[in-house]
Amino acid sequence: SNLSFLNDASVLHNLRSRYKAMLIYTYSGLFCVVINPYKRLPIYTDSVARMFMGKRKTEMPPHLFSVSDEAYRNMLIDHENQSMLITGESGAGKTENTKKVIAYFAAVGAKQSEAEGIAQEGGKQVTLEDQIVQTNPILEAFGNAKTVRNNNSSRFGKFIRIHFSKLGRVASCDIEHYLLEKSRVIRQAPGERCYHIFYQIYSNYKPELKKILLLDKPIKDYWFVAQAELTVDGIDDVEEMKASDEAFTILGFSEEEKMDCYRLMSA
To answer: Which Gene3D superfamilies has this protein been placed in (predicted)?
Structure first.
């Protein structure tokens, strides 16, 4: 840290001052402290990501992209695995920041492919980078839910490995999950909700889907998903269902495989 006096009061004052200026990222030694702004900020666009590519941390303001790029460059230069650990209490922004890290690595990998002249034949095709990014809507649909503290709380832990080639291109990705809160499927506390996927399926994104799945009653009549909240402020289940359905397609699921997943959920 560059603080003259490193104590609780000075750290808190520094973080508060930066937060008031909407500077939500602050470096503290090897760590990057993030304060959740609880609103969308225009600091994660493709143009912003390109600004951080290949730059040293000291050349750019504190940002998650800078931490990500440093890990990427260290991997290529030192030929060693790199780790990024995102921690915090519920609602701190772990899920959102994880998504930004994945999106950044996908963007870096795509740029590396372009630099090597790897062209897509036959127009726009689904790339590995696209598929890695599209794992997020699926994981959130099946593993996130509304709690009293967070409208999109991850009810499981995950360990994500992104593998790169020697030239820095994304080669593969695997995700391990831990400690899924299975009890939420049959029991929700007051002010909370079951997993998003159940309400997405019941939305009107595909009106014929409910008929196929024999969901002919109002959702409040299905006890397992109607013990508390049925809707969430700021979450449009129709749009979220559209994102989940499209993500399945990008990940290579056939229509029959998607329907099998929906049938399991409706059952």
So the answer is: Kinesin motor domain
Q: Give the number of other CB atoms < 10 A from CB of residue 151.
A: 17
- Our count of domains for the chain comes to 1
- For residue 64, tell me if it sits in a domain: no
Asked if residue 95 belongs to a known ligand binding site, the reply is yes
234 is in an annotated binding site: no
Residue 91 marked ligand-binding: yes
Residue 57 is labelled as binding a ligand: no
Range of the domain at 197: 101-266
Is 183 annotated as belonging to a binding site? no
Of 46, 108, 97, 29, which Cα lies nearest the Cα of 71? 108
Whether residue 29 is annotated as binding a ligand: the answer is: no
Taking only the tens of pLDDT, the chain with its 267 residues reads: 566 778 899 999 999 999 999 999 999 888 999 999 989 999 999 999 999 999 999 999 999 999 999 999 999 999 999 999 999 998 899 999 999 999 999 999 888 777 666 555 555 688 999 999 999 999 999 999 999 999 999 999 999 999 999 999 999 999 999 999 999 999 999 999 999 999 999 998 988 999 999 999 999 999 999 999 999 999 999 999 999 999 999 999 999 999 999 999 999
Q: Is 249 annotated as a binding residue?
A: no
93 annotated ligand binder = yes
The CATH number of residue 131's host domain is 3.40.850.10
pTM of the model: 0.88
Asked whether the beta carbons of 94 and 86 are under 8 A apart, the reply is: yes
